[in-house]
Amino acid sequence: MSNPKKKKVLYISHGHPNFSRGGGELAAYYMYQSMKDHPEYEPYLLARLDDPNHQISHPGSRLMTSDKDDHTHFLISNGTYHDYFFHSKIDDGLQEADLYQAFREFVLALRPDVIHFHHYYHLGVDLISFVKSLLPNVRILMTLHEYAAICAHDGSMIKTDKKQLCNEASIADCCRCFPQRSPGHFFLREKLFKSNFAVVDHFLAPSHFLQSRYTQWGIEPERISFMDYGRPIWKRRERPAKTKKQPFRVAFFGQIVYHKGWDVYLKAAVEYLRLRNKPASRDTAFPDIQFSIHGTRNWLSPELSDRLDSLIGQAGEVLYVHGPYDPKHMQDLMDRIDCIVVPSIWWENAPLVIQEAFMAGLPVICSNIGGMAEKVTDRVNGLHFKAGDHFDLLDRIMELADSPELYSNLVKGIPSIYADHVMAADLHALYDELIAKNENQIHAATSSH
Amino acid sequence: MPNPFIFVPRCVPLDLFEQYLKVMSSKFPKRRIVVFESNPANLKRYDSNVSTLPYQGKRFLSEQMLTQVAGTVDWSACAAILIPLTGNTTRGFEQLVQFADQAGSAPIYLVTPDYTFTQLVRSKQSRAGKADSAVAGAPKVTLDTLSDSALLGKISGRLDRSYVGSDNSVYAFGWLDDGGQFAPGDLLVFANEDDKRPLPAVILRCTHPDPAVSIRGENLGVAIFVRPGKKPVSALRVRYPGGGETSFALEPKSQKLENLLADIASDAGSCRGQRDLSAAGRSEIDGLYSGLMEDINARLIEGITVAEEFQLGPVPRDPSISVVIPIHKSYELIRHQFAHFAADDFLKRQEIIFLLTSVSGGAEEIAMFKYRMRLLYMLYAVPCRVLIANKNASYSVANNLAAAASRGRYLMLLNSDVFPKSPGWLQKMMATLQSDPTIGIVGARLLYPDGSIQHVSLDWRREPAFDNLLVNIHPYKGMHPSLVPEKGVAEVRAVTGACMLIRREEYMRLGMLDTGFIRGDYEDSDFCLRVSAAGYRIVCDNTVELYHLEGASYKGEARRLLWHYNTKRQEKRWAAFISKTEESQAEVNV
Predict the structure, then answer these.
(1) Do A171 and B450 touch (CB under 8 A)?
(2) Going residue by residue through chain B (590 aa), what tens digit of pLDDT does each one get?
(3) Nearest residue on chain B to A124, alpha-carbon basis
C-alpha cells in the first residue's frame, strides 16, 4: 500500500468535505489531494468524523477507512464532548477516553515523517504535544484557518455583544466578552495554546492579514509564512450568453451563519426593492438587479431566525432563495450570475468562495476588512464596501450593475489562482527544508561531545 | 342548676388545640366545653359540643379577660378551668394564670404537651370549689412555684452539632426555646439518661445564627463545653431551675470533621458577638474555642498516610530536586501545569510528585483523577510520581507527606495554581540556594495573569482593626513590577509556600510545616520564622518569575473566623521573636 521510498505526510483535519461544509475542511482536503502522485511524498488524511449514534463506525473502534480512498482514515470523535473554550477532550470525563489511544496506535503504525495539522477542533489542542511525545523527530506544521487560538469567540475576533471588530486580545477585554470567565481562564487559555504551538515547526497563514494577527499575538515571524489555499483550477469554459432582458445577477454563497453577514446582504436587497418601487425610479433607467442567496441554513437563535425570515419576506421578488448547494456544482451555479457578494462582518481569513468567483471570471464585492480586503483589490478585481453597511453595499452593487465598462475592467483584473500542483511543489520544498534543518540539528547535537 | 362546663382559653395554635380538646373531652366526659376564642374566624370551627365565647383582643391579658367575662360567665357552674400549654408558652403565660386565679373558684389545671394535667393551687385562700371530677392524681403546683416548675421545663430545643473528644470531653451547640430567659448560671448539664451529678461544664448563651430561630428571640442559642471525664457521654440533658429538662442525643459521627471546623468557627463568632461581653469574657470564649478547634484539627490529621502510589514514566531514582505539588480538587489545572512543564527538560529530569488530598469524594472521583494523570502523561510525557492520601488532608499535611516520600536533596513546594513563565526557573533557584550556605529558603517572584505582582515576599504588620494582632501582609501586591525596588536576590523576612525551595534535610530537621494551623495561610510564614530562628537567611530571587493564579480556597465568615484563630496562634508563638528582630533592625512601627 505505501511506497517505502517515499516520505509520509499525514494531514489532520477536523472534518471531511463529504460530511461537513466548512472551508477549512475543504482546504485541507485540497492540500491532501494535491500531494497524491507526488514523487517524494505520500499523503495520508486523518479526518474527524462525528458518529454519536454509532451508525457507521466499527464497534469498539474509533478508526475507519474510506472505501473510496486507501489513504484516508476517519477518527470518530463526538463533537458534543468538546470544551470549546480550552479546546480540550480531557475534562469531559471518560466519554472520549479511548480517543487518544486510537490516535496513538494509528500514528505509531503509520510513522509519518511530517504531520500537517489543519485543526484541533473536536480533537483537543493537546494533540499537538501528543504527536511530539509519540514521534520526537516528526516535523510538525499547522495551517491556520481562523483566530481560535487568539479569540474564544469562535475564533472570529469580533465582540460577543454587539459584534464590533476586535483588533487584539487582552485579558481585560476578553473578560468583558465572557463575563462568566475570570482573568485566570484567559491566561491559562493563552498559555495552553502557546505551550502546544511551541512544538510546531512551521505555521502557514492563508492570508497576510491572518499572518499579521498571529505574529502580533506572539508567533515568531520566522516560524510562520504566507501560503494561499491551493486548489484544482476549473477548466475555462464559455459562459452562457446573457440576454439584454436579464437583470444584473448578484449572489451570496455560504453557510447561513450570522458572521457571514447575510443580514447586511438581505437588507441591501430590501433597500433595493424599496428604491425601485419609488415613483421617481420608474422614469429613470433604474438598474434591474436580481439577488440570490445560496447556502445551508444552520441553527439560528429564534430572534435571528425570525429576522432572517422577515428579511426574506421583505425582499420579495428581487430575492431568490436557493438553499443548500453542492460544492461540485459551484461552476455551474456561477455561470448563471454576474458577481458575488462576500459581506462577512468578521475579518475572515481567505474565503474559498472568492477564489471560486475568480475562477468563474466574476468580480467580487466584499467587506473592506481583514482577509477579504486582501484577496479582493478595490477597483481592480472587485469593489469594497464598508463592513456592516448595507447602504454602501447597495451603492456598490448598483454602481457595478450600471457600468459595463467598470465591470469589464474588473474582470480583466482578476488574478490567477494558486493551483494545487504549484502548492504541492511549495509544500515539497517546505517539508524538505524542515526535515533537513532537523537532521542538521540532530547531527550537530550527536557529534559534539 | 346550669350545665357544668369546662372553661378553656385558646392560647395555643388551632391545630394543636384540636388535639387538646379531644384529650380534655375524655378527661371531663359529659361536660360542655366553653372556648375563649380570640380569632373571630375560628368561632365557627369547632364541633357542636363546643361553645365559644369571643374574646376581643389579640393577646390574652388578664384584666381584659376578666372584664369581658364579667356578667357573661356563671362561674358557679364551672367544673374546671384548663390552660393548655405548648413547649413555647413563655410569654403571656402569667396573664392566663392570673386570670384563672381570679376567675371564680373552680379548680385550675395546666395541660402540658404530654397531656399531663397539673393542678394549679390558687393563691387566694378562698374555698376551693368542689371539683366534681378532679383529675385523679394530677400533680400540684402553686402560683409561687410555677415559674420554677417543671412545667416550663418542657422546653424544646434543637442540637445543631456536637463533638465528642477522645477524652470524653463534649461540645454541643444548638438552641433552647426558653425565650433566652435562663442565663448560663441558671442551667445545669447532666449526662446520659440517669446520671445524678451534674457535669463540669461551661455554658454560653448567644443569638442563634439561624434566622428562623433568632426571630423567636435573642439569646436562644446555647454552647456547652463539657470537660473531659471518665465515662463516655452519649446524651446531654440541660436542666432548668424548675427541674424541667431538654435532652440532646449526641450523634458526633454524623457530621464531617472538616465541615465541623467551619461551623465551630461560626459558633465562636456568635458567642463573641454577644452584647455586654467583657474583654475577659471574650478571652474566655476564645480560649474555649481555640482548644476545641485544635483538638478537632488534630483528630482530622491523625492517621493520614499515602494510601497508594504509582509512577508515570522515567522518574529519576536519585534526583537533585523533588517538586511537590498537592492537588485538592483543582483537577482542571493539572493539564495546564503539564503543558508548561513539557517544555522544560531540566524540570523533567527531576522528581515531580503530585499528591492527591481530595479523596472523600469516593472511588469514582479518585479513579477519574488517576485516569486523568495517566492521560496527561501520555499526551505531554512529563514523568512524575502520583501519590494518593487515605483521607482528606490539609495543605501542611499534604506537603509533609509528600516530602517524607520524596528522594531529592532539595525540596520545591509548589502550588497547583503556579505556572512557570519560562524554563530555567528551577535551575536558577537551586543555584541561588547552593551559592550561600547561610541561605535557608529561596522564594520566587510570583505574578498575576495581568503581569502585576502577586508575591515578592511575606511580611508582618500590627493591624489596629484586628486588636493590633500581627497579620501577614504581601508587599507590592497588584502593582506593576517596575515599582518593586529589589531586582535581584533580595533578603526577606518570609516567602510564600506557593513556591519555596529548601534543602530537604533542613525541612525535615526543622519540623516541616506545622499542621496545627487550620486551613492554611500561616504554615509558610511560621516555617520561615523557624528557619530564621535557626539562624538562616531567607531570600526571594526576583529574577525568577512564575504566575500564580491565587484562588479563593474558601470564602465567607468561616474563613474570617479561622483566619482569626490562625492569626492568634502565630501571634502567641512568634510575637516576641518578631519584635526582637524588628528592634534589632531599628524599625519603628506605629
Answers:
(1) yes
(2) 568 899 999 988 787 788 888 888 888 888 899 999 988 888 888 888 889 999 998 788 889 999 999 888 888 889 899 998 875 555 567 788 888 888 888 889 988 766 778 888 877 654 454 444 567 667 777 766 666 555 554 567 889 999 988 888 999 999 987 767 678 888 889 887 667 888 999 999 999 988 888 877 788 899 999 999 888 888 898 887 656 678 888 876 656 777 888 888 889 989 988 888 888 888 888 889 988 988 888 888 888 999 999 999 999 999 999 999 999 989 999 999 999 999 999 999 999 999 999 998 889 999 999 999 999 999 999 999 999 999 988 899 999 999 999 999 999 999 999 999 999 999 999 999 999 999 999 999 999 988 999 999 999 888 887 778 888 888 998 899 988 999 999 999 999 999 999 999 999 999 999 988 877 678 999 999 999 999 999 999 999 999 999 865 444 555 666 777 788 888 888 888 888 877 776 554 44
(3) B379
* B381, closest residue in chain A (CA to CA): A133
**Vertex B128: Cα angle to B126 and B131 (nearest 5):** 165
Find chain A residues with C-beta within 8 A of B380's C-beta.
126, 129-130, 133
- In angstroms, the CA B505 to CA B409 distance is 7
State the residue for C-alpha cell 536576590: B489
The burial class, CB within 10 Å (0-12 / 13-18 / 19+), for A317 is exposed
Q: Whose CA is closest to B204, among B251, B238, B228, B252?
A: B238
**Residue B544, Cβ neighbours under 10 Å: how many?**
24
List beta partners, residue B308: B388
Q: Is A25 on the interface with B (CB under 8 A)?
A: no
Burial A97-124 (b: 16+ CB within 10 A, else e): eebbebbbebbeebebbbbbbbbbbbbb
Using alpha carbons, select from B416, B232, B433, B234 the residue that is nearest to residue B329: B416
Nearest CA in chain B to A131: B379
Q: What share of chain B is helix, strand, coil (3-state, %, to 5)?
A: 35, 25, 40
A256 vs A293: CA distance, rounded Å: 9
Cβ of B343 within 8 Å of Cβ of A100? The answer is: no
Contact status of A126 with chain B (Cβ, < 8 Å): yes
Backbone angles phi, psi at B365, to 5 degrees: -65, -40
Residue B387 sits at φ, ψ, to 5 deg, of -115, 145
> Do the chains contact at B335 and A90, CB–CB below 8 Å?
yes
Identify all chain A residues contacting B378, using CB atoms and an 8 Å cutoff. Answer: 100, 104, 130, 133
* Grid coordinates of A298: 444552520
- CB burial of residue A53 (10 Å; 0-12, 13-18, 19+): exposed
Contact (CB<8Å) B380/A183: no
- In the sheet that holds B245-249, the strands lie side by side as B188-191, B235-239, B245-249
Strands of B464-587 (E only): list them.
469-473, 489-492, 499-503, 537-548
B375 CB neighbours in chain A (<8 A) are 90, 97, 100
Find the residue in A nearest to B551 (Cα).
A184
pTM of this prediction?
0.76
Within the 332-371 window of chain A, which residues sit less than 8 Å (CB to CB) from chain B? none
Q: Do A188 and B379 touch (CB under 8 A)?
A: no
Tell me the sheet residues that pair with B311.
B385
Using an 8 Å CB-CB cutoff, list chain A residues near B329. none
Q: Which grid coordinates belong to B284?
A: 474566655
Q: Are B342 and A195 within 8 A, CB to CB?
A: yes
A108 touches chain B (CB under 8 A): no
- Buried b / exposed e over B438-464, threshold 16 CB at 10 Å, is ebbbbbbbbbbbeeebbbbbbebebee
- By CA distance, what is A199's nearest residue in B? B343
Minimum distance, in Å, between the CA of residue A10 and any CA atom of chain B: 19
